[in-house]
Amino acid sequence: MAGWARLPREARIGRLVLPVGGLLTSVLVWLPFRAALLMGLYMHRVLRTEYNEELNVMNQFWNVWLLNGLLVVPVLMAWRFARLPVVEATGASPAKAWRQAAAAALAFAAVAALTVGAFWDPVGERKPGRVVVDEARSDWEPTEKPYDTEFYGHMSGYNYACIYDYASRFYETSRFEKPKEGQPLKPIDDSALADCDVLILKVPTKPYTADEVNAILRFVERGGGVMLIGEHTDVFGTGRNLNRIARRLGFAFRYDCLFGVDSFFDQDFTPGLVPHPIVQHVPPMYFATSCSIDPATSSGRAPILETGLKSLSADYHASNFYPPAEDRAHMRYGAFVQLWSVRHGKGRVVAFTDSTIFSNFSTFEPGKAELMLGMIEWLNHTNGSADPRPYLMTLGAALLLVGLWLARPWDATWAPLLAAGLLGWVVGAVGVRAAHAAAMPAPTPVRDFVKVLVDRTVSDVKLSKGGFIGGKEEGFGIFDRWILRLGYFTVRAGGPEAIKPDVDLVVVLHPHLGVGDAFRERMVRYVEAGGRLLVLDSPSNTGSTANSLIHPFGIEVMRRTNYSGTAIMPEGWPAIPIKNACAVNGGEPLAMLGANAVAASTRYGKGTVTVIGFGTRFNDDQMGVTGDVVPDAELRKVFDVQFSLLRAIAEDRIPTVKARPRASRSGPPAGSGAN
User: Fold this and answer.
1) What is the pLDDT of residue 445?
2) pLDDT in tens, 362-400
3) 3-state secondary structure 312-354
């Protein structure tokens, strides 16, 4: 390589013609053979599939082993026909030291400028934060009816009441309301948008008129922000209605469904090394089922561009256009845009493709509420007068060309230049991350709310994933979701750093993982400073580590006891039957079976610790199995016990029941059924 680099420019170009031509010829010759081999294998597998067997043969097109194996032939062809010629070093004098230093410095500066130009998305100036949700043109996932202790059934989960309430704690929120019966629909015009900074258009089931589209685009040009939230397959006409706006900006919602390559319903997202400001505060999260976005001619950015996905077009034989989750020959696979951001005038628009994840049953799973706040916060900024990124890209390209020109006579050119370029990428990437974090920190609340941390440090019990609850006996998905019915907001997180001063209540469900010293000490300091801890344990929680966590507070779960019966609860709480309960020693009794406390609470410093010994009573299989349950009278009593318990702890008014003698440490053996 060094000898080739010393040749005159004309000679170097001539020596490259044959290798480059050989490489291109190898690829072009191999591609049709590759396609023929894949199609031949596909047809062979189709014909070999028995009539009664499931036709599942598309997986070969994304099989890593097969695709890598097919690379062997073009690699061997390139090795044979695309070699660089070997040229002996001529002994020419090396480049002067200043040229070497200048070339490396220019390589560093060029790559740094290109990195900043590629990843930096200037945040702009923040606006007052007046958010308006268009409820008038959407009959799906409404925001008006509260998700409370009285509203149950399928539609209680399929609405946006919780995320709307949560957003109202950070921004000034309002709605374009549905008209009353007999009254006309109020149009979206300049006057309607006069007091709005961010307009949210979610799954519209009614079309926007041409005048409304023009008014929305004028709003963006003046500095407004618009969020378009779509759903899979143009269900209910949502894609077509949003595309009346999106196509004016050069992109479109596709009428498809995205699935995971390896598992249809597993689509996860983790922000990259240099995340867009929208997703910089988003932890790893799961999608439900989204459509994709065709960026087309728009000059935007993709805050979420995911690989390893499969796309199936809408099935119009189904009422919701949802295609069967199966591999088909016409499906597309690869990388797809799921969140798109464009600038228009002084304002900006974001388009998101999976409305389901913001429904009550899903939105407080990890990452989803953070994503909603990230989109709103991004839209709550205006664009600057000029976009510096094209200039940075041009400058970077120019510096790179000059650096390569200076490096021409330098022996061993490539390693130092690559090292300088890599350093430039690191500096540019770190700088962009820091700039995004400084310009757009996580929004701070403007109204108080109760924040409940569901711990994932010492407990990894089954909770909902993608909005779905398995209904298993070891799951606590319904208990976790029902916390939202009290107007509280949950977050799932692990590690000592998750126990922050802004957390009002920490819930630990069937702790069974190791309790580290750092976590225990952090919990003690948290409670001592006024925090509240709720621990659910039971005889079924084999390998319980509850006592390791709560021992410093002078309270203990008697693991060798197991009681059953109808629990005596505080006044005003319903009595419920309990099959398996451990006695709890220490603190003040909160629930009793006979003379034995099976729940207790104690004060420690300024805070409280509450321990429940009958945690399995709140397992999914005993709470209605799914989040769509409509409770009967008996199940409603169990729900009311949970609601009363959480309210009492959060409001620091924990009641007691009649005092009783302490349970014996030996107690009846587990499973004895004593009462």
Assistant:
1) 96
2) 999 999 999 999 999 999 999 987 788 889 999 999 998
3) EECCCCCCCCCCCCCCCCCCEEEEEEEEEEEEECCEEEEEECC
Task: Give residue limits of the domains in the chain.
Answer: 1-92, 95-122+390-448, 125-382, 451-650
The CA distance from 537 to 544, in Å, is 8
**Fold match between domain 125-382 and domain 451-650:** yes
The structure tokens listed for 407 are 């490096």
**Residue 401 CA: distances (Å) to CA of 47, 109, 395, 607:** 55, 12, 10, 64
Alpha carbon distance 533, 559 (integer Å): 20
User: Rounded to an integer, what distance in angstroms lies between the CA atom of residue 544 and that of residue 513?
Assistant: 8
Taking the CA atoms of 148, 153, 155 and 157 in sequence, report the sign of the dihedral they define.
positive
Report in angstroms the alpha-carbon separations of 16 from 10, 28, 80, 82, 264: 10, 18, 15, 9, 46
- Residue 436's nearest CA partner among 126, 129, 170, 120 is 120
Question: Which fold would CATH assign to domain 451-650?
Answer: Rossmann fold (3.40.50)
CB 491 within 8 A of CB 364: yes
Q: Is 435:476 a contact under the CB 8 Å cutoff? A: no
pTM: 0.89
pLDDT number for residue 649: 97
Coil vs helix vs strand at 23:
helix
With contact defined as beta carbons under 8 Å apart, do 281 and 339 qualify?
A: no
Average pLDDT, the chain: 90
353: closest CA among 400, 293, 394, 422? 293
Residue 372 CB coordination number (10 Å): 24
* First and final C-alpha spacing in the chain: 85
Among 303, 295, 328, which Cα is nearest to 314's? 328
Task: Identify the pLDDT of residue 657.
Answer: 87
Ranges assigned E (strand) in 503-576: 505-509, 532-536, 556-566
For the segment(s) 125-382, the CATH number from 1.25.40.20, 3.40.920.10, 3.40.50.880, 1.25.40.10 is 3.40.50.880
Token output for 118: 């590629």
Residue-wise pLDDT for 162-202, tens only, equals: 999 999 999 999 999 999 888 999 999 999 999 999 999 99
Q: Do 530 and 606 form a contact (C-beta atoms < 8 A)?
A: yes
- Mean pLDDT within 62-81: 84
Q: Which of 121, 115, 170, 116 is nearest to 383 (CA)?
A: 121
Identify the CA nearest to 146 among candidates 484, 373, 466, 505. 484
User: Strand 285-286 and strand 172-176: pairing?
Assistant: unpaired
DSSP secondary structure letters along 190-237? TTTTTT-SEEEEES-SSPPPHHHHHHHHHHHHTT-EEEEE--GGGGGG
Residues 91 and 404 sit within 8 Å (Cβ to Cβ): no
> In this structure, what are the phi and psi dihedrals at residue 617, rounded to the nearest 5 degrees?
-65, -15
Q: Are the CB atoms for 231 and 384 separated by under 8 Å? A: no
Residue ranges of alpha helices (H) inside 387-458 are: 389-406, 414-439
Distance CA 323, CA 233 (A): 9
Whole-number pLDDT of residue 330? 85
Quick check: helix, strand or coil at residue 145?
coil
